[in-house]
Amino acid sequence: MTIGITEIFESVQGETTLVGLPTTFVRLSQCNLRCSWCDTPYSFSRGNKQTIESIIDKIEAFGHRHVCITGGEPLLQSEVLSLMEALCDKNFIVSIETGGSLSTEKVDPRVTVILDIKCPGSQMSDRNLYQNIDYLKAQDEVKFVILNEEDYAFAKQVCEKYNLLTRPLLPLFSPVFNQLEAKSLVKWILRDRLPVRLNLQTHKFIWHPTTRGV
Q1: Is the pTM of this model over 0.70?
Q2: I need a surface site. Which of 17, 24, 124, 142 has the fewest CB within 10 A?
């Protein structure tokens, strides 16, 4: 069983409530979406085929408990389900970042799902699979990447419609890097007294925003 891989690297988690934690990242290849603000188009190719065993060997060599499965869109490759199950069996703390257009129903319940709900500014909001909200577990997180105030209003509406503001972990509101100033997003959140978490891409402040493998 093989999986198309773009890169495997160690860094600190730059986003979500796990921000700052040493983490091994496994970036799978291919994506079925083309978001207007995408910062990883290099993951669109088929990547290098690697066995699950070799992937786990590389993860174990880094020696970090946290493993983040990302892309591209990792759920495009069904073999990722077996990879995550194997990692959980080895007591790694596993999360998956998904664009939200494919079902998360079969993801191992031990895995933390970071569910990205696309806003209109991404030009992919018509691909949202809202049924995924039904599969959310207490440890899962929902993220909105926001380009402008229209996106903010959309995200707020979705949060209210699907009761996301009462979840154990509050929704993540992330400004598109270098396109929406964080202080503008903060202004809207405070104005509306919206109980959400501002989510900045910390790694882009530590390294140059286009640096790969960090």
Answers
A1: yes
A2: 17
**Which SS3 state, helix, strand or coil, does residue 114 take?**
strand
Closest among 141, 7, 143, 3 to 84, alpha carbons compared:
3
89-129 confidence digits (pLDDT tens): 999 999 999 999 999 999 999 999 999 999 999 999 999 99
Q: Where are the domains of the chain?
A: 2-206
Give Rg (Cα) of the chain: 17
Report how far residue 60's alpha carbon sits from residue 195's, in angstroms, rounded to the nearest whole number: 38
Q: Token pair for residue 49? A: 């085929």
Strands 172-175 and 48-51: unpaired
Q: Which candidate, 120, 111, 114, places its Cα nearest to that of 73?
A: 114
Question: On the CB side of 135, how many CA atoms lie within 13 Å of its CA?
Answer: 19
Which CATH architecture best describes the domain 2-206? Alpha-Beta Barrel (3.20)
CA distance 80 to 96: 10
Taking the CA of residue 163 as centre, how many other CA atoms within 13 Å lie in the half-sphere pointing to its CB? 6
DSSP annotation of 32 reads S
Q: Residue 85 is encoded by which pair of tokens?
A: 């199950």
Collapsing DSSP to helix, strand or coil, 122 comes out as helix
